[in-house]
Amino acid sequence: MYRPTYRPNMITLMGFMFLLTSSLLSYIYSPHLDTAPPRWVHLAHGILLFLYQTFDAVDGKQARRTSSSSPLGELFDHGCDALACAFEALALGSTLMCGRLTFCYWVVAAVPFYLATWEHYFTNTLILPVINGPTEGLMLIYVSHLFTFFTGAEWWAQDFRKSLPLISLVPLPFVPEIPLYVIVLILMIMFAVIPTVGSNIGNVQKVVDARKGSMELALAMLLPFIALLAGVAVWCYLSPSDIMKNQPHLLVIGTGSAFGYLVGRMILAHLCDEPKGLKTGMCMALVFLPFAIANALTAKINDGTPLVDELLVILLYCATSVGLYMHLAISVCHEIKDALGIYCFRIARKEA
């Protein structure tokens, strides 16, 4: 791995393939993410996530060791990390057996990631707290996978008082049965997402004020991401076939790819030092959602049957989002490597 001919991007890609394998296991053994897979799958999830985290850390060291750091490496690394949010959410969904709430776990990962990228765009510094997602957050997740290898996924899906016997000693007569994975989701939002988002906005506010810029223009760059989340939420709410429950893999991968496109465009704007403000090109990630929502609405006037079968719609949504992301990634990688005279997966410099 440490041979000089290995470009850091190759290490990044190898690490990403571990998460791709993990999400594939979740689809094979728990298609709807609401049934318990074999216990060895949880062990595999934990090991694969640990390997991903290790490779994600090693690629930067390899770049410094070989003096091969470049804008292409930054774009490639963060682009893979953006997609990793989706694929690890699917692996975690099979471990927690949380079904439709898997999409919410992806949102919990995507929101801090997008805000951190947005903050980096303005501050030129990736500011991470002492306890952060890429380190302690991933560690907690793969420890959860390994823990589930011993307890089984049902431990997360039962009432929290059964999973945590000490809590049952406290009388809670007015609290209904709540699965433990719901409690975990609430705690993550309260103690991880909200403080991180507040810190991101505060740091950007300081930089904008110091430069006498416009906070409105800065916040406008969040609109495509907000529109993506809102559009998918509306579609899921109107969906006659309940895509969030019945097609969680397609929904998360499709939306995760659209998210990756938004992140990629923002990183590209930062690398090119584009003017601050809303990037209309980012809205390409949203073009399919009006059709999906309109199709779901037709079910309201057609006895619950949409104009186009929703399985076909979500397949098209997933294919469109993946295709859009791949087009951006491949075209930008080609342009940057040609401009810098380097290879994407080899350290040797191109001949002039």
Automatic annotation (TrEMBL):
Its cofactor is Mg(2+); Mn(2+). Keywords: Lipid biosynthesis, Lipid metabolism, Magnesium, Manganese, Membrane, Metal-binding, Transferase, Transmembrane, Transmembrane helix. Belongs to the CDP-alcohol phosphatidyltransferase class-I family. The chain crosses the membrane at residues 12-29, 101-118, 178-197, 217-238, 250-271, 277-299, 311-330. GO terms for molecular function: diacylglycerol cholinephosphotransferase activity; ethanolaminephosphotransferase activity; metal ion binding. Catalyzes both phosphatidylcholine and phosphatidylethanolamine biosynthesis from CDP-choline and CDP-ethanolamine, respectively. Has a higher cholinephosphotransferase activity than ethanolaminephosphotransferase activity. GO terms for cellular component: membrane. Gene3D superfamilies: 1.20.120.1760. InterPro entries: CDP-OH_P_trans, CDP-OH_PTrfase_TM_dom, CDP_ALCOHOL_P_TRANSF_CS, CHOPT. The keyword Zinc-finger does not apply. It is found in: Membrane. Its main location: membrane. It is a multi-pass membrane protein. This is Uncharacterized protein. It catalyses: CDP-ethanolamine + a 1,2-diacyl-sn-glycerol = a 1,2-diacyl-sn-glycero-3-phosphoethanolamine + CMP + H(+); CDP-choline + a 1,2-diacyl-sn-glycerol = a 1,2-diacyl-sn-glycero-3-phosphocholine + CMP + H(+). Pathway: Phospholipid metabolism; phosphatidylethanolamine biosynthesis; phosphatidylethanolamine from ethanolamine: step 3/3; Phospholipid metabolism; phosphatidylcholine biosynthesis; phosphatidylcholine from phosphocholine: step 2/2. Pfam families: CDP-OH_P_transf.
